Amino acid sequence: MQKKSLQSLADKGRSPKLASENLEVPIKRQRELDVLYSAARSLVGIEIKSASTYHPGFKNALAGFHAKLAPLSRRYVVYNGQSLSFSDGVQALRFDEVAGIFQAPLAPAP
Q: What is the rounded distance in angstroms from the CA atom of residue 3 to the CA atom of residue 87?
């Protein structure tokens, strides 16, 4: 697995706030979400895309975070297309429906 030190990334002007010679980040295995919302001891993951056509890869970060890092009580993809619900619990919402994410009651993650 290829790793780059945070210092080398900072030296290239990519992330000066994270500079440290002692930390390493695995490049291919990062699990990053656009928004991680916490309330009532539950986590909600939100992935934001600018596309108007849904693509199955939009859920990859949500699935990886949920499986490998921390269970998410709800998972959303926000994009510019039609609302969709999936059997794995992920919901795809139009950008103008985002307020509903923060108004729905949260249940603890399994």
A: 35
Structure tokens at 36: 């991680």
SS3 state of residue 64: helix
Q: How many domains does the chain have?
A: 2
CA distances (Å), origin 4, targets 27, 32, 61: 7, 17, 21
Which residues face 66 on adjacent strands? none
The whole-angstrom separation of Cα 36 and Cα 71 is 12
Q: Is residue 94 part of a domain?
A: yes
| Residues 15-68: tens digit of each pLDDT | 334 333 434 434 445 568 899 988 888 899 999 999 999 999 999 999 999 999
The backbone torsions φ and ψ at residue 61, rounded to the nearest 5 degrees and listed phi first, read -65, -40
**What are φ and ψ of residue 56, in 5° steps?**
-55, -30
What residues make up the domain containing 12?
A: 1-30
